[in-house]
Amino acid sequence: MRLGARKYRLTTFTDLGLSEPILRALEAQGYKNPTPIQAKVVPAMMAERDVLGTAQTGTGKTAAFTLPIIHRLIGKGRPEPKTCRALILAPTRELAAQIEENVRAYAANTRLSSAVVVGGVKAGPQERRLARGVDILIATPGRLEDHLRNRVLTLGAVEVAVLDEADQMLDLGFIPAIRRLFRQLPADRQTALLSATMPPEIRKLAADFLAEPEEIAVAPVSRPVEAIDQSVRHMDAGAKRDALAGIVSGSDVERAIVFTRTKRGADRVSKNLETAGCASVAIHGNKSQNQRQRALDAFRDGSAKVLVATDIAARGIDISGISHVVNYELPNVPEAYVHRIGRTARAGRSGVAVTLCAPDELKLLRDIERLIGRRLAAENAPASTPESAAPAPADKRSRPRRRKPAASSNPQHRRSAPADRPRTGPRRTKTSTSRHASTTAPQQTI
Ligand code: AMP
User: Fold this and answer.
1) 362-372 and 334-341 are packed helices; what angle lies between their axes, rounded to 10 degrees?
2) Whose CA is closest to 325, among 335, 102, 311, 441?
3) pLDDT, tens digit (0-9, with 9 covering 90-100), for 239-281
4) Distance CA 250, CA 343 (A)
5) What secondary structure letter does DSSP report for 433?
6) Which ligand 1 atom sits closest to the C-alpha of 13?
7) Domains identified in the chain and CATH numbers
């Protein structure tokens, strides 16, 4: 062994103590070293500690919690019918499907079974699958509750529970369902909660359902990945169509995600790109699960170079090789900008994020710049500078300041249809959204 290698011994997967079938699977994935979140979460979970983790997608957090689960369950014999041993809760169907894909890859050399339970598809096949029992179940909350009500599944055999993207669960009004689900879990289970941000409601949830968790944080959400080349182009709304066609036809564009604020906008932009001769697909909450999956498959296999998406539809989606993110419209919530651009520059690669900014979006741009603590490089000056948009942020604070949510029936605060069913629980309203609501932000109907 070389000296240098000895010096960094603790950063290899082998030294984390993961079992051999997992190490082989990681090698097959081409992973050489654990990412920072993995180096911290894997040992904590292997020591059977509860974990409260702050990490965005793109940090390797999925492997951070799935590897110790697989390690723990290997060689335990088959699960009883209608039970699962590990339960992973995810806010969206896409994220649930993606987590299962990862579980399958990491557990490829084991006999462990996995299944996904999400809304938007028929319940029958899921019921038949659950009847046999499953080692690792990945679920969205609404459909999982349906199955529990119908006694297709019980949670009494769960050894490990994971709540992924907890802050998005909060945005979607899923927290009451999460609390109901957690109350059905055995008291002596292990629990991990992962969230990109840690608002008070999530801290409270953790305090209620985690036992002396180890707190682990990497890459706070208000600091976008340094590897992303971020810029803004100022233009009238009417000029965006041609500008976008120009950007995505660039020879440096491997795969691009284009973000719009609304579902209708996503369809329109995708159609315009097709007209301009660029193969593209759109995903948003109005599409059926099958349509969304087909679109993602086309994007993954390269038959569509561009994916046009609304914020919620794209959240958590992990597709490698996304070279460009284009903000066709600015998000009403500045934090969404960080999530959007995080689709590129994943797993150590570089990426480009271009924001197309119309004059009536300048205030939204300034809010984003305030959040990330710096100005975006502008390729040209804004045509006009409305008073509301004028002062640039000298403010370097690292976290956005949050205000108590305004009591809100304002449709601009609604972000998306949840994964399974119409929202029933309380919903968080971000400060910045309410600040924008009556000023510059166009209606948001994602
Ligand atoms: P996640 O944050 O879980 O969405 O993961 C982001 C991306 O990083 C995924 O494409 C993973 O396959 C990849 N990834 C996870 N762990 C590692 C690792 N240790 N080395 C390289 N890539 C990784």
Assistant:
1) 70
2) 311
3) 999 999 999 998 889 899 999 998 899 999 999 999 999 999 9
4) 19
5) H
6) 19
7) 13-218 (3.40.50.300), 228-388 (3.40.50.300)
CB-defined site of ligand 1, < 6 Å: 31, 34-35, 38, 57-63, 318, 320, 346-347
Per-residue model confidence as pLDDT tens digits over 292-315: 888 989 998 989 999 999 887 776
Q: For tokens 């976290």, what's the residue?
A: 399
Which H or E run contains 24?
A: helix 20-29
Q: How far is the CA of 197 from the centre of ligand 1 (A)?
A: 19
CA distance linking residue 6 with residue 10, whole number of Å:
8
Query: Which of 23, 26, 35 has most ligand 1 atoms within 8 Å of CB, for mutation?
Result: 35
Q: What does the alpha-carbon distance between residue 328 and residue 305 come to, in Å, rounded to a whole number? A: 16
286: number of Cβ within 10 Å: 16
Structure tokens that stand for 336 in this block = 């969404």
- Ligand 1: which atom is nearest the Cα of residue 35? 19
Q: Look at the block and give the residue holding tokens 């409305």.
A: 386
Between the alpha carbon of residue 330 and those of residues 324, 370, 374, 422, the distances in Å are: 16, 14, 17, 26
Is 253 in contact with 323 (CB distance < 8 Å)?
yes
For the segment 162-219, what is each residue's pLDDT rounded down to a tens digit?
999 999 899 889 999 999 999 999 999 999 999 988 889 999 999 999 999 999 988 5
Nearest by Cα to 108 from 11, 203, 23: 23
Query: Which ligand 1 atom is at minimum distance from the Cα of 59?
Result: 2
Gap between the Cα atoms of 153 and 147, Å rounded: 6
Q: How many other C-beta atoms can be found within 10 angstroms of the C-beta atom of residue 24?
A: 12
Does this model's pTM top 0.90? My answer is no
What is the whole-number distance in angstroms between the Cα of residue 408 and the centre of ligand 1?
37
H helical segments located in 211-327: 240-248, 263-275, 289-300, 311-314
Phi, psi of 104 (to 5 degrees): -60, -45
H or E element in which residue 338 lies: helix 334-341
Query: Do residues 193 and 326 lie in contact, with contact meaning Cβ atoms separated by under 8 Å?
Result: no
Residue bearing the CA closest to ligand 1, atom 11: 60
Query: Which residue's CA is minimally distant from atom 20 of ligand 1?
Result: 31
Per the structure block, which two tokens stand in for 236? 């009238």
Identify how many contiguous H helices and E strands the chain contains and give both numbers: 17, 14
In sequence order, the β-bridge partners of residue 282 are 308
